[in-house]
Design goal:
about 325 residues, six-stranded parallel β-sheet, six-stranded mixed β-sheet, 12 strands, globular
């Protein structure tokens, strides 16, 4: 069975070996550690190129957006989310200019594939984990890929699709075996994926919390409770209808989010629940930002309260 990172590379190669002209570029993407393995084994077709570039993220974004404006296709591979922050002026201002004057059908493709250093013990310059904030700031779709089926669909549908997006991968999962649990369904815009059907509680996973959400689902099942399990990506203005319908059925919602963003996409879900007059009980398993002491080298992992979750689902608390 392939590991998480091996499967991601193999899915990328399915596209890049057959899509025609495409540029894959990044810092030492085919040398040394190959971005900790993210870019090891990348392949392109005879009309594509793989190029190593220097250390200047603001320029990298400009290259990709410039190629997109000219109708070309490119994929930038980046070592960590912290480096993405250096290109946000281009992601916001330059891309805003492009989409003010060009429709999506008139441009090419620019995709960033980037590591989130979420394995812990990395220090203050290798620990950004706030993809939803970047999505909100730049108003672009951002995908956090977790299991086999959502990885395959997101890469197949988006890697060289017209427009601009970011695909984040979890470094914590790199050496884990790829999870092959089949999808029940996925939205066309890759905003929502459903993995399990249940009547007792709705589980809404964000960021890279899907593996832990699956553990919660299995724990609840072992105690006699069935869950609707969804994973939600950061796609602006996506429809929440499937999840809202699930909450109407179950009457209970648990949001699981291991990002460090203070403002959560789960808050947007809660707002829509209130706007639609849906009655439900709600708890979350999240973290909002970090305390000052947690910006240094630390464990950097969430602790999940299984006892609280079971009490909530079994109606002993609300």
């Amino acid at each position: 069975m392939k590991k998480y990172i091996e499967f991601i590379v193999s899915e990328i190669n399915k596209i890049t070996t057959s899509c025609g002209e495409v540029l894959l570029f990044g810092e030492n993407i085919d040398k040394g550690s190959c971005l900790s393995g993210l870019s090891r084994g990348l392949e392109v077709n005879s009309n594509g190129k793989i190029i190593n570039i220097g250390n200047c993220e603001l320029t990298h974004f400009g290259i990709g957006l410039g190629m997109m404006l000219d109708g070309g296709n490119s994929v930038l591979f980046a070592k960590q989310m912290d480096f993405i922050l250096l290109g946000l002026e281009q992601a916001c201002s330059t891309f805003n200019f492009i989409r003010a004057y060009k429709s999506r059908n008139e441009v090419g493709s620019f995709t960033i594939v980037c590591i989130v250093c979420d394995q812990g013990f990395q220090g203050p310059q290798s620990s950004s984990n706030n993809a939803s904030d970047i999505s909100s700031l730049a108003n672009i779709p951002i995908y956090c890929i977790n299991f086999k089926d959502d990885i395959a669909k997101i890469i197949n549908d988006n890697l060289v699709a017209k427009g601009f997006r970011i695909i984040f991968v979890s470094q914590r999962a790199f050496n884990s075996e790829i999870n092959k649990i089949p999808l029940i369904y996925g939205e066309n815009d890759c905003s929502i994926f459903k993995y399990y059907e249940g009547r007792d509680v709705t589980l809404a996973s964000y960021n890279f919390a899907l593996p832990e959400t699956l553990k919660i689902r299995n724990y609840l099942k072992s105690n006699g409770f069935e869950s609707d399990l969804y994973h939600i990506n950061y796609v602006p203005n996506h429809s929440l209808e499937p999840i809202l319908n699930s909450i109407k059925k179950t009457g209970k919602l648990i949001v699981i989010d291991d990002s460090k963003s203070i403002k959560k996409y789960g808050d947007y879900l809660a707002t829509n629940i209130l706007k639609n007059g849906i009655k439900c009980d709600y708890i979350d398993q999240i973290r909002r930002g970090s305390e000052d002491k947690n910006y240094g080298v630390n464990h950097d992992q969430m602790i999940f309260d299984y006892e609280k979750i079971l009490k909530f689902v079994s109606n002993r608390i609300s």
